[in-house]
Specification:
Layout lengths: L7 E5 L11 H4 L5 E5 L19 H12 L6 E4 L14 H13 L4 E5 L4 H10 L4 E7 L10 H13 L2 E7 L4 H14 L7 E6 L4 H6 L4 E3 L15 H10 L4
Parallel strand pairs: 1-2, 1-8, 2-3, 3-4, 4-5, 5-6, 6-7
Length: about 250
């Protein structure tokens, strides 16, 4: 997360990580961390369940343990709710917090916390997080969030209050939305003691923002069953693009 250094994390989208462990070294080439999308995990006995789902703490922790045997890269533990683009039920905040607390106890390096949760719940996690870093995240799927508007500034301030890292994700309607995003990040980084920021626009029109984002850019890989978000690029694609625009 050193300023001026690009960093990336691979977004795993497997329901069960164990069959993919033999490919982990190949898939993580070039990246700095691995995200486990806990909301996408499915116990083999519930493999046909495609709707909102709550994995058990024991199953999630067994997946983390299996991953630890194959890589020393830091792990990002994410429980993404339906309203924020994931598969975890929105009403199950208690269960989400239990999973996050278990991840903290096992020493996971990063936990992703949605700022839409109750402040009391988030503050409880902060008090327990130990050496884990908290990524305070907000995802706007409406396509109406303007990077030069007041609502995004309010979301940024709230994420900055809770997190060690701020993550704001919007949806691009045109290429100009990526320039607005870049200007927003520049303004926020000029403030005293600014925290690292992950800022991205989803969708094909937002792919430029994924190329220009420098802090923990989420990436996919051809071996994954599907992309974690629309418009997501691989590490190799981003490196090619950076080279073509003279940034690498």
């Amino acid at each position: 997360l050193t300023q001026g250094r690009r960093s990336y994390f691979l977004c795993l989208t497997y329901p069960d990580l164990t069959p993919a462990l033999s490919y982990i070294e190949e898939m993580t080439a070039g990246v700095d961390a691995i995200e486990v999308r806990v909301d996408l995990l499915r116990s083999p006995k519930d493999g046909e369940n495609t709707g909102p789902y709550i994995p058990t703490v024991s199953y999630a922790m067994s997946q983390i343990a299996a991953l630890r045997h194959k890589t020393t890269l830091p792990i990002i533990f994410t429980v993404r709710t339906v309203s924020q683009g994931g598969q975890f039920p929105d009403h199950a905040e208690k269960e989400a917090l239990e999973l996050l607390q278990a991840a903290i106890r096992t020493g996971v390096e990063y936990i992703d916390v949605e700022i839409s949760w109750l402040e009391k719940s988030i503050m409880d996690l902060i008090s327990r997080k130990g050496s884990s870093q908290l990524i305070a995240s907000w995802h706007d799927w409406s396509g109406k969030m303007a990077w030069d508007g007041k609502p995004v500034q309010e979301k940024y301030r709230l994420a900055d209050k809770f997190g060690d890292i701020v993550k704001i994700v919007g949806k691009a309607n045109g290429i100009s939305d990526n320039f607005a995003l870049t200007q927003f990040v520049s303004r926020m980084q000029e403030t005293p003691n600014a925290k690292p920021v992950i800022a991205i626009n989803m969708g094909l029109e937002g792919q430029m923002s994924r190329i220009l984002n420098s802090t923990l850019s989420p990436v996919t890989h051809p071996r994954l069953p599907f992309k974690a978000a629309p418009g997501q690029l691989s590490f190799a694609q981003i490196q090619t693009a950076l080279h073509l625009i003279g940034q690498l």
